[in-house]
Design a protein that fits this description.
Elements: E1 3-5, E2 8-13, H1 15-21, E3 30-32, H2 40-48, H3 51-62, H4 68-78, E4 92-94, E5 100-103, H5 113-117, H6 120-130, E6 136-142, H7 146-155, E7 161-168, H8 174-181, E8 188-194, H9 197-208, H10 211-219, E9 222-226, H11 232-251, E10 261-266, H12 271-281, E11 286-293, H13 298-304, E12 308-310, H14 331-338, H15 343-356, E13 358-360, H16 363-372, E14 373-377, H17 380-394, H18 400-416, E15 422-426, H19 434-440, H20 451-460, H21 466-469, E16 481-483, H22 491-495
Helix pairs in contact: 1-6, 3-4, 3-11, 11-12, 17-18, 17-19, 19-20
The structure holds pyridoxal-5'-phosphate.
Residues 111, 113, 146, 229, 266-272, 322-323, 401, 427-428 line the site of pyridoxal-5'-phosphate (PLP).
């Protein structure tokens, strides 16, 4: 299997090279040139496997330089029962009203990012070995809240790696911040920036493709990589849980063989929903993918209003901070595929985005996208109402991001009358966002400390996840705040670590 840059198909690499480097030198994202198809026999095999086996099986279709033994070994370690609270790594819960919820937050940091970031360190260190790389791998991460902690947890004290996380100082929940600043490990660094996620992600893309920075790092025996969803090694493990959810629905009789499902995903950087799109391209029976946004609804406008992507709009801090994003990186991969792998066109559009903050796609691409996708958005008020009705009517406690997806799906159904069974991707534990969740249920929580966990537990009777309860008593280790203009200078911190 070969990977090419979305902006230049002549830049061809293997899976291991794509994972080791994270992003293409021209700023493009590495994309597989074809989608392996899941045959009937494949589904029979998948049905007989547990989550770990299914993940290794799907990864094997893309990471062709990795042996089945290797991938199975990685999956056993990444999705170990003690890390995910049991063998049911990504359970599909069905609500009384029949909607299915794919819970992706049973990992150590309580967000779906664990599904990929528990796997990525194994894939990355093996990729470094396979490509003959001997330099220390410096992983730079921009986070809107959840990737940061999941990446720190995955890479802490992994030999041959260092990791630095940038988070928006006012843009994460108190619990997300506490998780990051108390991170243990000798090879980790955490920096708050005065700016938003887009500022951090754009600065990192510039650093990754800056030759003089790369040279300086090289002189110190180091190289860069990424743990954001621009890295194919982040995205590939996410395909597996959509396939696995389908198998679970099938084997429990909740759907029939070949029956189509809809998938609704609360979206920010467009990584999670892109993984669902890829699963569909591989032959998973999917009708529509519904892209759910919060008030930062640039994607809704893109999907619903004539294929114009326009960042010239306000940036809102919302109760679903992990989706507070205006530049959704992985949309670039979708454009690459729906344009028929037209790298020249993708480069033009991304240049236009960088220079003018907008681009427009041709009508044929719009039609192709409309065949697979629908979209909608919901503000904080709608999110809160949805949390309350889900709790009262379905006895289900949802976090703020998942609630956005529920709401958007309800509106999609009202507008279309579509009765296809739906899987809602549930992306975080409600305990990561105690304050807005409790407020939605009519109770104000005052504290920003771990006491908020007990308050939400008392209010709802739901169990506090271990990974969050264990934060009690931990001391903050990182308090650096830098203006966004100074991100480049902070790379020295990592070099000297
Ligand atoms: C990261 C995140 C999202 C957005 O996922 P993308 O892959 O960036 O679209 C949604 N919800 C939660 C809780 C997240 O952490």
């Amino acid at each position: 299997m070969e990977y090419v840059s979305s902006r230049n198909k002549n830049l061809r690499v293997s899976a291991a090279q794509a994972i080791a480097t994270g992003i293409s030198p021209d700023g493009g994202l590495y994309c597989p040139t074809s989608f392996p198809q899941l045959t009937h026999a494949d589904f029979q095999t998948l049905l007989s496997l547990d989550y770990k086996g299914r993940a290794a099986f799907i990864l094997g279709k893309y990471l062709t330089e990795f042996s089945a033994e290797e991938l199975n070994d990685f999956a056993q370690k990444a999705y170990a029962d003690e890390k995910f609270g049991g063998a049911d790594t990504a359970p599909v819960v069905t609500l009384p009203d029949g909607r299915h919820v794919l819970e992706l937050w049973h990992g150590p940091t309580c967000a779906f990012k664990d599904m990929a970031l528990q796997m990525l360190p194994h894939l990355l260190t093996a990729s470094l070995r396979k490509t003959g790389e001997t330099r220390t791998c410096c992983i730079l991460v921009a986070t809107s809240g959840d990737t940061g902690k999941a990446a720190l947890e995955g890479f802490a004290d992994v030999p041959g790696t260092k990791i630095m996380v940038y988070y928006p100082v006012d843009g994460v929940s108190p619990m997300q911040k506490l998780q990051m600043v108390t991170q243990q490990g000798e090879n980790v660094e955490v920096v708050a920036i005065e700016g938003n996620f887009d500022d951090a992600q754009s600065a990192l893309k510039r650093i990754f493709t800056d030759k003089s920075v790369a040279q300086k790092l090289d002189e110190n025996g180091m190289m860069f990589s990424s743990a954001n969803s621009i890295n194919w090694g982040r995205l590939a493990p996410q395909i597996a849980y959509y396939v696995s959810a389908y198998c679970d629905l099938l084997s429990s009789g909740r759907i029939k063989h070949g029956e189509k499902i809809n998938i609704c995903v609360p979206t920010g950087n467009f990584g999670n929903i892109l993984a669902a799109y890829i699963a569909k391209q591989m032959g998973l029976p999917v009708n529509k993918l519904i892209c759910a946004s919060n008030a930062n609804n640039v994607l809704t406008d893109f999907f619903k209003c004539g294929g114009v992507y326009n960042c010239d709009r306000p940036f809102y801090l919302t109760d679903s901070p992990s989706m507070d994003i205006k530049i959704s990186s992985n949309l670039e991969r979708l454009l690459f595929y729906v344009s028929g792998q037209n790298d020249v066109l993708v480069r033009e559009m991304m240049d236009s985005l960088a220079k003018t903050g907008r681009y427009e796609i041709p009508a044929e691409m719009r039609e192709k996208i409309a065949a697979d996708f629908d979209a909608g958005w919901c503000d904080d008020k709608g999110t809160a109402e949805t949390i309350r009705t889900l709790f009262e009517q379905q006895d289900y406690l949802s976090d703020t991001h998942t609630a956005v997806a529920f709401r958007v799906y309800e509106e999609y159904q009202k507008a279309t009358g579509d009765t296809t069974p739906v899987v809602i991707a549930s992306t975080a534990s409600p305990f990561k966002f105690c304050k807005p969740v409790a407020a939605a249920l009519g109770k104000q929580i005052e504290t920003d400390g771990v006491g908020q966990l007990d308050a939400l537990h008392a209010l709802t009777g739901r169990e506090i996840p271990k990974g969050l309860a264990s934060l009690a008593g931990k001391q903050p280790r990182f308090d650096r705040v830098v203006p966004k203009e100074d991100i480049l200078d902070t790379v020295d911190l990592l070099v000297n670590l």
